[in-house]
Design a protein that fits this description.
The structure is a homodimer. The first copy, chain A, has two domains: about 140 residues, Aspartate Aminotransferase, domain 1, CATH 3.90.1150.10; about 230 residues, 3-Layer(aba) Sandwich (Aspartate Aminotransferase, domain 2). Chain A has about 400 residues and is an alpha/beta fold. Chain A is built from 13 helices and twelve strands. Chain A is globular. The termini of chain A are far apart. Chain A is about 40% helix and about 15% strand. At the A-B interface, helix 1, helix 3, helix 5, helix 6 and helix 9 of A face helix 1, helix 3, helix 5, helix 6 and helix 9 of B.
């Protein structure tokens, strides 16, 4: 009998809630017809990549480097790609970076694992405001660290700063934030970020060691009218930005993103070297070469995110009219609705009776809520509104 | 001051011997002219990918799935891609696999880290016949395991089976082999593999637990007339094949490969789940989507490897005529030559005086030898022969 490490075995066999709902939806579609199933379970971008993506691929293949584009790049990413990206960040965010502050990765998940493996010593803790993407727990545990959650504030889904401050200890190595946020869709405000980073500075001074801000930003560009996403390194020197092009360019399968190690970070060169060393340890030789070039050339562009805004408008106004409680999302393609009974799993099961597939937010450390991933065609949202109405009505009787 | 894990910091800052030689070569080229520098340091494929690679990319982009190709795939790889690949392996190797025995990865490095993290419990050891690619040490240490080397047999560079058998202990979790071999270019014979796997079976029976064979096969298709690469799962049931398209299709920058978990393996479903769980833990969401499709459609094809055979013929016959000692490579684009003095680092330094850049094989656990990576244009090899002659002559005087 094989003696295997229990953590990876659990990860490989444990049922994934979102995936399970998705599979259930496929079965349901066979029974009642796909047109009658409203699947809001997965955060898979529904809009096509901008035309520039496939055009850039064709241009690169047709150009002088058509064959050599597939060669190894340096581990941190091809220098010309990092130079392009650095210039783009400097232009867009008033940053003062060089190519050597950037490390191309295979998407945000790889960016996060590289950061956690770069920073984590035994016993280290990371404070994370709920709600949050719970795969962070997998990555942090894999690096030997521990997650300490702070409580959600369901009135706004901005971090509850009292609970946040209480979550710190001398073992705190870093803080992970994700804004625009999965699963709430909320964009953390400048005021929130100013207070949050003030607390971090105080705690770092109190404990006498740095506390790192790891900012997971795959939704940075998916932000709606009237909202803006502050550039974190402007608020806090010891910031590592983990970025992915998965959502902004609708390229989640290609696994391309980066770590940005703020040039203002204490021991910037050491931290950058540790990130590179972590990538080497984990078997990330270099981020995919062709998509490094595509990302560098298309940085700052987006797929047609107007669709997400239209979806948000329709869904938020309709749901609140029906009596659902939710906080208006400022970005992403998610929103949380309050469960109409205490048990959000039971709430989501009742929603299934109306062919609405929602994800209980328990797995985002936000029990009592359900996540709606509205990255679907707008006509599907329109078609689903009667089902939401029936769901609401079922709690009136 | 940052408190960082020492292993990743060392990995991120430690000088890489091969990379250092490469950088030295660039400086030397400025002094004496690039045409006078013969850089044999890096294993970067020198021939272009087969035309089918870029054509397949264009076809996919122009086809019905042009936009949807960039979407998330399932974690183990898109099912149609795994079905294509499984059929190809069944056809080419008389295998009896299904799509569910295959897990697409980001090249062989990721395949190896996923296997090591899937299998390794604290205290586990892996036996590896020298010479070998020493990055295995990084991956195994990263998973919490330990490497136990067996000695090289410099007469043939087949594994020294006496030393191999002596390397086993009750802590042995697996064996890692790499044939065709980096750095020797040697292809392990059927006889070697039959004996080697017999030893593994005996030891597994003696210890009462499975011993896994991890076969790292990025050079499987780069094999010369008169040699063949046996299919390892036919020799040993508990085999995991780690494959990369980096060398066969000249795509090292794109990071695409796979783990094949033999369907005959004991607890096959459990091991496969652990590999998937390890990929999740390490942040490998899915292997790059577009290149999954390219690899599945081009499996079994190769870049123009005739060039490597021509290089091997020219280099091997010339060097042996000059009095160098080397074992004829049956594949890859590497060969080892015996150092003409005890210290192979000093030997490589003397070679530099003749503008020959060779890598001391000390870093492949094979001191006393130097590696020549002959993935360079054939005319460069021809041009370098007088320099090799001068190097040989310098040891006669």
């Amino acid at each position: 009998m094989a003696n295997l490490p229990s953590d990876v075995l659990a990860l490989g066999t444990r049922r994934n809630v979102m995936r399970e709902i998705f599979e259930y939806g496929k079965l349901l579609a066979q029974k009642v017809g796909a047109e009658n199933v409203f699947d809001y379970s997965l955060g898979n971008p529904s809009v096509a990549p901008p035309a520039s993506v496939n055009q850039t691929i064709r241009d690169v293949l047709d150009g002088a480097e058509g064959d050599s584009i597939h060669a190894y790049t340096s581990a941190q990413g091809d220098l010309p790609n990092r130079e392009l990206l650095s210039a783009s960040l400097n232009r867009r965010f008033g940053e003062n970076s060089t190519a050597d502050d950037l490390y191309f990765t295979m998407g945000a998940a790889a960016a996060l694992t590289c950061c956690f493996h770069a920073l984590t010593c035994p016993g280290d803790e990371y404070v994370i405001p709920a709600p949050y993407f719970t795969e962070y727990q997998v990555f942090i545990a894999g690096a030997g660290g521990k997650v300490v959650e702070s409580k959600p504030d369901p009135k706004t889904f901005q971090p509850d700063l009292v609970s946040f401050e209480a979550a710190f200890s001398p073992q705190t190595k870093g803080v992970v934030i994700n804004s625009p946020n999965n699963p709430s869709g909320v964009v953390y405000s400048k005021e929130t970020l100013a207070q949050l980073t003030d607390i971090m500075r105080q705690k770092a001074a109190e404990y006498g060691h740095p506390i790192y801000l790891i900012s997971d930003e795959p939704y940075r560009e998916i932000v709606f009218d009237g909202f803006s996403v502050p550039w974190l390194p402007a608020f806090y020197d010891n910031t590592l930005v983990c970025y992915s092009y998965s959502k902004s360019l609708s390229l989640p399968g290609e696994r391309i993103g980066y770590v940005f190690v703020s040039p203002k970070m204490e021991d910037n060169r050491l931290i950058y070297a540790a990130v590179c060393g972590a990538g080497r340890k984990l078997g990330y030789v270099n981020a995919p070469a062709l998509f490094q070039r595509v990302a560098a050339l298309c940085d700052g562009q987006t797929a047609d995110i107007a669709v997400y805004q239209e979806n948000r408008n329709l869904l938020y106004s309709s749901l609140t009219q029906m009596g659902f409680t939710c906080v208006e999302p400022g970005g992403t393609f998610y929103l949380l609705i309050k469960s109409m009974e205490a048990d959000s799993v039971a709430f989501c099961e009742r929603a299934r009776e109306f062919c609405l597939l929602l994800a209980p937010a328990d797995s985002f450390s936000c029990p009592g809520y359900a996540r709606i991933a509205f990255c679907v065609p707008t006509e599907r949202i329109r078609a689903s509104l009667p089902a939401f109405q029936k769901l609401a009505d079922s709690y009136q009787s």
